[in-house]
Specification:
By secondary structure, the chain is mainly α. It is built from 18 helices and 2 strands. It is globular and about 65 Å long.
Length: 428
């Protein structure tokens, strides 16, 4: 009997390793039962699909064994749209933001430099509230599901919304720096902040400005709370982890061409965990736990284990959408290939590639030329990566459901199922 926590962890790790092993298998045997039809092979067209007006790209990818939920326009995943919360919750969350900006800019502080306060207001309004707000809304959702009903007072819910906006300011701080480091042009359908004529490299200082505003907001509203110290420690820890993630990623692209020999699954998972998973998934739930008075290390460890797994899939999903998603739906033009990023698609392609196919990666990956980008996408399809992703999505969903069901320590399973549902866009 496998009744102990260690036994279950071992079983789940074996299952996860088997998924990885299957993903890395070569696709050279074209008649294998495990292989989906090649995209360039004939397939029966479905008149019904044409009638409902599905995008050509989706129809093309439907030649695989099942409908890719990631590309379904009616049910785009969390990486492509916001967290599914009620309109009332969304309005409640948005209603807090003007007050936060007002507190930071019109409370009598720094009255001798009014231009600085005016700039901060402009900086916050341009960058913070216009995204999907996944992290902020997840913080509020987690608090409401974790807190005792008697403690869900208007004041405490307001504080949870403020905490949510602090996670959004943390996210904005990361985006501002990331856009500068990567030379990005557009963000959320508008020019990146540092691309504005009145900003430029001073955007680095503006990123610090946003971070300082976040800490000021935390002090104003939470300094008298018993969990304040732990909250500060969590934000500082997340800042360190994100910095490590950026460092690991930049080590792969020190020159104009990425060093593909460093593109391993282990390296990819480390980058994903430190750059994205910790602060996107663990932090919102971790902060909610602290706000409800739960600071037991084992409870936080159990939550972190599942949330980091979700964070890894979230990034893999984002990588897939960057290459195969519709820019009109996901809100951005994919540029991972052009930037030479260490993505899940690139790593799996290198695992499966023949010597000739690897040379194609060496010759074309990391180039901004449209013909080079197209050649890499063609190679991904030749290697049947959309099918591999589809299988991975299915297996990961089942694995995460199993892990959630093993959670103890009084953590509500519904919270994790809710987050899982938002990633995979399924009814759970």
């Amino acid at each position: 009997m496998f009744s102990t926590k260690k036994s279950w962890d071992k079983i789940l790790q074996i299952y996860k390793n088997e998924i990885r092993r299957q993903i890395s298998k070569t696709t050279s045997v074209t008649n294998s039962d495990a292989m989906a039809p090649r995209l360039d092979q004939s397939a029966n067209k479905s008149p019904q699909n044409d009638e409902i007006g599905l995008p050509k790209k989706l129809l093309k990818l439907q030649k695989y064994h099942r409908f890719l939920s990631t590309l379904t326009p009616q049910q785009m995943p969390l990486a492509a749209r916001g967290l599914a919360v009620s309109k009332d919750q969304s309005r409640e969350f948005m209603a807090c933001f003007p007050d936060i900006v007002r507190d930071l800019t019109k409370t009598g502080k720094h009255i001798d430099v009014p231009e600085a306060s005016k700039w901060l207001a402009k900086l916050l309004q341009y960058n913070v509230p216009n995204g999907k707000k996944n992290r902020g809304l997840a913080t509020v959702l987690a608090y409401k599901m974790l807190e005792k009903p008697d403690n869900l007072t208007p004041e405490n819910i307001h504080l949870a919304n403020i905490m949510g906006w602090c996670t959004e300011m943390f996210h904005t701080h990361q985006l501002l720096l990331n856009d500068i480091m990567e030379g990005s042009e557009m963000r959320r359908g508008a020019p990146c902040w540092h691309r504005r004529p009145d900003v430029g490299l001073s955007g680095i200082n503006d990123a610090v400005f946003v971070q300082s505003a976040m800490y000021s907001t935390l002090k104003r509203h939470f300094s008298a709370k018993s969990y304040y110290k732990n909250v500060l420690e969590m934000f500082n820890e997340m800042l360190l982890k994100c910095s490590i993630g950026h460092h690991l990623e930049k080590q792969l692209t020190k020159t104009d061409k990425p060093d593909l020999s460093l593109f391993t699954m282990e390296k990819y998972e480390a980058i994903t965990k430190y750059k994205t998973a910790y602060y996107t998934f663990q932090m919102p739930v971790g902060l909610a736990l602290l706000m409800t008075g739960i600071d037991d290390p084992e409870t936080h460890r159990q939550a972190k284990t599942i949330l980091l797994e979700m964070g890894e899939f979230f990034q893999i999903q984002d990588d897939f959408l960057d290459c195969f998603g519709d820019p009109a739906v996901i809100g951005k033009d994919g540029c991972d290939i052009q930037d030479g990023k260490c993505t899940w698609l690139a790593v799996v392609a290198l695992q499966r590639a023949t010597l000739e196919q690897r040379q194609i990666m060496e010759n074309h990956y990391g180039s901004a030329k449209p013909e080079d980008v197209a050649r890499i996408k063609d190679l991904y399809e030749e290697l049947q990566l959309p099918h591999t992703y589809s299988v991975y999505e299915e297996a990961t969903y089942d694995l995460l459901r199993t892990q959630i069901q093993q959670v103890t320590r009084g953590l509500p399973h519904d919270l994790f199922f809710k987050i899982l549902d938002n990633i995979f866009r399924r009814s759970v």
